[in-house]
């Protein structure tokens, strides 16, 4: 064989090698591009079988598609509920955006106690949902039914009759179905023994219309929803902020502008669900809408709920504002907490909700709320506002040894809060005047502090003397008050009024922690479709859920109804979006 032939054979083999190499890499890239959640979208069924992963900005730049069926803005409970409902209803390409990094995923939902308020028939009805009854003697559990009428009455009473009745009906009617849907998705639920039950006369008594929580609060709720999103091929991009959208009147598509980790992109979507939260982390908007002093409130949850999407929707989408724009959910909060954001480790444990068991006094040594006005579930969301209005935006919660044993360990253990303890009330007053060893806001008037507690103790004793049949019971409004024929305080304590006399005495300092704002956008209750300001008509293809939705809560809310509302209306929005896509984009 000639030397020329050898050269030709060598060149042929080399060419074949490069062809094979190119073919293998091309096929590999093609296969990768078809994997759900990695640079593209697969079918819902394929993703469920293969296990879609969420592309995150924590490890890579967001890999964004140019076109989707449903785009959801916000990665909290409401947003993920909408995304999952859309995927289940047939939307093949569902994308969730959140401007936060992955380390802050879940919005405010992550920071909740994970409580769900829903209609049920008692323990037999709830038992199939929960996973923590092993070893519990069920005969000792006193879990009354919570009816449609109970839920509606609580909303009407607590919100002053201002809630949109159509939103109330939708929330109440679908509350049980929404919770069971979450359970089918893999959200783990427990009976809330630690937060919603007291052991009274040998019975484990649930109270306040609440009994169910996510297994580990908001943390496990978000983890479980994220896992469900992976199974349903829902793609999530973090560090990706919504900037606005325009409608293509020729195709009907919505062109969504986003900032993806500093790069401006446009994504075509057939439907958009806004679930980006309120403006509670924006001091300017808090002062503008809630009033003077609200820039001083501490933020309980995510620092990323700053209201830009709300403002953009009203400015550019003709969105109609709705609800209580001067109102919010705010609580008694650890005064030492970070003012700008919640603690992802401590989470809801920084709430200080034991005030019904004792007293709250401001820095001048004066009480300013009726600590026993109602069960904690119906007062805690408005008492933050009362604390903010006090001198120094702070107050002290005070108990004696008899009552402090009933405090929830997760909120009041020494590792979680600075406890000021003393053997006498005089010594406690001295320590609080000295800042309790923290160098923080101090008690300004010890004499007023002591006088307030002594007058309260006297009033509580006189009431008990006149009403010997009444028994202290923290699971009901027990009627033990400070108001008797012999003596009445200007500001009563209407229930659970036990004298503070048994040492040691305990005090903790609290301030106002804001959770979420009540003002939002008007929606069609049936579909959560955004309504126009100009004519009241639905804004086709655009939906609004979660804390962005207005009209449901006014000045206060029944505990546990926020997460339920997020799931109910998120689910409705996702289902409606998928159905509209099938009808409009054949």
Automatic annotation (TrEMBL):
Cofactor(s) it depends on: FAD
Source organism (scientific name): Purpureocillium lilacinum
One GO MF term: oxidoreductase activity
Name the record gives this protein: Precorrin 3B synthase CobZ
One Pfam family from the record: FAD_binding_2
Listed transmembrane segments: 7-24
Residues in FAD-dependent oxidoreductase 2 FAD-binding domain copies: 69-561
Entry keyword set: FAD, Flavoprotein, Membrane, Oxidoreductase, Transmembrane, Transmembrane helix
Listed InterPro entries: FAD-dep_OxRdtase_2_FAD-bd, FAD-oxidoreductase_2, FAD/NAD-bd_sf, Succ_DH/fumarate_Rdtase_cat_sf
